[in-house]
Amino acid sequence: MFEKLFSSAAALQRHQDGPLAAERERYLQHCSDSGATYWSMRIKCNELLRAAMLLDANVKHDIDMDGLGALAERRMVVQNAPTTRSWFIAVTRPWFRFLGWWNEPIVAYEFQDRLDQYCLWMRNERGFSESTIASWRPRVRDFLIWCSAGERELQLLRPSDIDAYFIDDVAHHWVRRTVATVAALLRNFFRYAASQGWCSSRLADSIRGPRIFAQESLPYAPSWSDVQRLLASTSTDAPQDIRDRAILMLLAIYGMRATEVATLRLDQVDWQQRVIRIFRLKRRQPQAYQLLPSVAEALARYIDISRPTSPYSEVFVGLHSPHRPLSRAAIYKVVSPRILALGIKVMHHGPHALRHACATRLVADGLTLKEIGDHLGHRSAEATRTYAKVNLAALREVGDFDLGELL
Fold first, then answer.
1. Count of C-beta atoms within a 10 Å radius of residue 17
2. For the chain, N or C: smaller number of CB within 10 Å?
């Protein structure tokens, strides 16, 4: 690998004779296989050599954040080369992890094994999706850590302890709907815990969240003109804008969820038939859509021009090495900063706001709630009913209705 990076005999000799040459070369080969560019490899190579020269032999197999921080300070003081502490850490920490030398801090708490068992049950017995489990787990974990910190045993918990948890967490500024969600999650957890004999069987039924009225709020959707402004902000030749334009179109035109965009694979786009097949998470089945020309153009431009070479089959990958697939959180970071930068007034700035904008647009175009629900991949008409409240034309007809003849 060193031979591919350096044409100078002196530079090649320096890297081959330096400490931990085999370990550095193995990692660089791994970076190359993951799609790292030539110049990023050159930068990594030089920085890793300096790190290897500073590394003490007696600590190299057990490096934690404190040790890496001290190494970064030595790097900046001892060796006269321009760098920053954060850059040095960003380059060397993945190397230590690759070698198995990184001592990852583990935050352990008393009930961790029970949380793992609960999540396994949700996956295997209840069939919950990974995204649902990923969103539920932190809520239950926070409660269990609170119990552990207060030396509260699950077997001895009482309803007053659950009340105390919600009172203590007022500092989180939970809104009423969040309180209701957390209460429902804890109720589900304690039903499972009771089935395992971890707590009283009456504890789950004692948890009461605030009442949430059906259809009490309007969908938090930006106007379609704001969506058009959002798309217009990506009309450049920058690789990030090319990628983000395709993502925004899938969210706003097909009403895709963030996870559906993140998990979209290259083989789900049928270019010959002009069809895109989406696996709808709530329905748990694939759904085919016509690939509109504008969306096809945006996807083709990204895949052909801007998408980095990557071994992954997902359509959207990171722009920087090692070019892993984007996560749901990464899709949020594509949408939210752009909405904020344009000053679009909307309660929530994430991808789901564009899904609501898609539904609102379909309502304005006169589609029925059944047609809108099918387009969005809803499991039932109940999930689509909220969009009836944004049908302004129908509401005006109701407002103009003359009751005079009935009085």
1. 8
2. C
